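Exercise 7.
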Amino acid sequence: MNAVMAEKLSNIEWLGQQMRAKTANYEISTKDTNLEPVTWEDRCGAIASIDDQATKAYCEILVWGDYRDNTMAYSILHRHLAATLYQALAKDVQRIRFDLKSFAFKVAKMALFLNLRSAGGFKSEDKLRFFGINEMKMRTYREHYAYLENMADIMLSDMRDEIDFYADIYRKNLRKA
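Solution. The predicted structure, written as tokens, is:
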């Protein structure tokens, strides 16, 4: 791939470029310039430069495409989202009729699952049933707690922007060196 094509890649695409499994390429290629090519170690360095652990975990999930919920990165991100949602719930809810931590954990799992898989075809009732949110009726969720889903989506979007920022800085520093 030449330098012009590398410039057109988004930062997340650039991070994942040599990080996934691929087929062997036995063609002889020559470098366009006499510069050292960017290796997968450099891309790992870009991921390591991210300060926040939850953002780093989200980056790992996006780069390697491993959306299973039994990985360490997924667990870190899920727990971070759930803790933030729980803090918002604890401030807003006056009368507690159910376990807020469990509810926040379920909503975080739902938001993360739907965000990673772009599964927008669920009806609201089906989403709640699928993720085991049975603490309340659908109407109550929609009127009083649906903002938690939006909050998680905004947090994930902000994390994606932060990943893009750190990767962009890392790429610029690689070009300078």
